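The protein record filed here.
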Amino acid sequence: MGVPGAEVVVGSFEVRAEAGSVVDVFSRDTAPVLTVEAGDVVTVESLDSSGFLRRQEVPGEQQPTMFAERRGHCLTGPIAVRGAKPGMVLAVHFEELTPAGWGWTATAGKDDWLMRRLRVADAERTWLLWELDGETGTDQHGHTVRLEPFLGVVGMPPEEPGEHSTIPPRPEGGGNIDCRELVAGSTLYLPVTVPDAMLLLGDGHARQGDGEVGGTAIECGMTTRVRLDLVVDRPVPGIHAETPSGLVTFGFDTDLNEATATALSAMVDWLQIEQALDRGAALALAGATVDMRITQIANQTWGVHAVLPTGVLG
């Protein structure tokens, strides 16, 4: 449902990934590269998370990048949505996601708690180079996987002024969510953090497992068609989504228990409303139907999502 009284004029726009339309930090002070109305459709080109300007010819080849000294993900935008303001929710409808023709995955050679625990912090950085044909990806070792493309970063800047990292996901405004459920046909609902939303998109993933356990997915450039709406009457607070696989609620926190409880609590809220149940009954129903999944473990903040699978309730 749109904002009451708003006149909807649907337009179609395009934003290319080029100097002047990409950034590597979140900031409410960055000027928008495009301003649209609620209901408009935007086709957004994004480079891979590192911003490579040319494809790798051999795994790990350091080609030129958009930013000589990159601070975070290479993201396209901001895109302003006229009339958006805190208290509203931005609905990002993913209509189509098309990966570029190549991608990469890298791990090890990074000194953090997980790489130390997995005994690869001191190992040489390891790379997979993927050929992507739109349906499948094949690496240099001959492993072939079915592609399930989505964007790792979809979000708005924090309300606080200044520059903010793109690395951790945030419970307000989104960002580096890294949820593999957000494929074409999904709608992601993000609480608006700043006037006009100032949405950034990027960090294309041709495929990723739950958790992004090695620190990267199949990182790739992406062309994404989204429709942007403003809504005011969602059934649950916080970041949530409607996807082909089911209803999804999220929790993000430095504490895994808190992230899990946040995601589950929001799903119980949703079940209460959708099924007209008291809270105890909704939690009992969740125990029989809801899947809890680790969204990500790689980005300084735990991400957890709860999924009510499509069709599980008759």
In short: The longest helix spans residues 256-275. Confidence is low (pLDDT under 50) at residues 1-9. The chain has one domain: 12-236. The two ends are 26 Å apart (CA to CA).
